[in-house]
Design a protein that fits this description.
The structure is a single chain. The chain is of the alpha/beta class and 342 residues long. It folds into 2 domains: 160 residues, Quinone Oxidoreductase, Chain A, domain 1 (Alpha-Beta Complex), CATH 3.90.180; 132 residues, NAD(P)-binding Rossmann-like Domain (Rossmann fold, 3-Layer(aba) Sandwich). It contains 9 helices and 17 strands. Strands 3, 6, 7, 8, 9, 16 and 17 form a 7-stranded mixed sheet that branches. Strands 12-11-10-13-14-15 form a 6-stranded parallel sheet, sandwiched between helices. α2 crosses α9 and α4 crosses α5. It is globular.
């Protein structure tokens, strides 16, 4: 006589297993099996649909270039392991809640690349019906862009120059173009980004064609998002007298040289960092990080953000993606990971 099969028990067994990406050395990634904890009261079990690669930060992680002084401050919310290696890192995940509060709903989480995960339900942000799950992986980038613009204090009619047309620079541009009367220009070394800028509805200048502020009609707001010292140097040249450059880039362990001996002193310029780990000081008393992330998710209802999505790879290629990040050949926009086969 054949024993009855408890299909519910089999389903629970599947839900307790996961596959996760671990970066184990410079340019080396491994997919590892993980056993998930039993969800506690208030926890949610999420099955991942998509995750996104944040090229700037994840390149530094793939190369082992997170400075020792920043190991604690730069931990991702649900990171496992320690910098430099081995480490399970990432923070752009979208999935469906399988059990727990909001079961059956799509959600965003600041979780590493992993097929299933258990987190407190209050760490999840609901994905609106108007936002496709793949686009929703950009929530982290849009949240960063919101914070940068809060820090930059951009206003009506401002001329806004953004140096660097990667994922973060483009996200800033999409939001900045909504400011009434604003003139937004993306600046990049790659002339091919002109087509992307046009599709986003903003202007474009190649870095070699923007040698000084006059070339962009004396910008009111200058934001650097290139991740390169040359980009920051250009941003200083574009900044107005008594103005500032808001730096969205994180340079990791790299030493960045700047020429501050010309007119930097006489024009009384300021360099100010914007970092998404804390809400911009202009909003900090009234907004928390969850408020900011929820705002980013609502802003993603704009289909223009689809232009910031790069190529897609199945999760089985994640080790190759780590190698490409370390080699500097990764997708310049947001490369997405498809977990449908996990």
């Amino acid at each position: 006589m054949t024993a009855a099969v408890d299909t519910r028990q089999d389903a629970r067994a599947v839900q307790r297993k996961a596959v996760a990406l671990w970066t184990t050395g410079p340019g080396t990634g491994r997919l590892c099996a993980e056993r998930l904890p039993e969800p506690a009261d208030g926890d949610a079990l999420v099955r991942t649909l998509w995750s996104g690669v944040s090229r700037g930060t994840e390149t530094l992680v793939a190369r082992g270039e997170v400075p020792p002084t920043e190991h604690a401050r730069m931990r991702a919310p649900f990171q496992s392991g320690e910098f430099p290696f081995p480490v399970k890192y990432g923070y752009l995940s979208v999935g469906l809640v399988e059990t727990g509060p909001a079961a059956g709903r799509p959600v965003f989480a600041l979780h590493p690349h992993q097929s299933r995960f258990v987190v407190p339900a209050d760490a999840l942000v609901a994905v609106p019906a108007a936002v496709p799950p793949r686009r929703a992986v950009l929530a982290g980038a849009v949240e960063t862009a919101v914070n940068v613009l809060w820090d930059a204090r951009a206003q009506l009619g401002d001329r806004i120059a953004i140096v660097g047309a990667g994922m973060i620079g483009c996200a800033i541009a999409v939001l900045a173009r909504r400011i009434p009367g604003a003139e937004v220009t993306l600046i990049d070394v790659d002339a091919g980004k002109a087509r992307l800028a046009a599709a986003l509805g903003v202007g474009f200048a190649q870095a070699s064609d923007a040698p000084d502020a006059h070339a962009l009609e004396a910008s009111d707001v200058v934001i650097e998002a290139s991740g390169r010292g040359a980009g920051l140097q250009l941003a200083l040249r574009l900044a107005p007298t008594d103005g500032e450059v808001v730096v969205a880039s994180w340079y990791g362990a790299d030493a960045t040289s700047l020429a501050l001996g010309a007119d930097f002193h006489s024009r009384r310029l300021t360099i100010r960092a914007s970092q998404v780990g804390a809400v911009a000081v202009s909003r900090r008393a009234r907004r928390g990080t969850r408020d900011r992330l929820a705002l980013a998710m609502r802003l993603l209802e704009d289909p223009t953000f689809d232009l910031l999505l790069g190529g897609t790879s199945p999760f089985t290629r994640l080790p190759d993606v780590v190698a490409e990040l370390a080699a500097g050949t990764a997708d310049p926009l947001c490369h997405t990971i498809d977990w449908s086969g996990a």
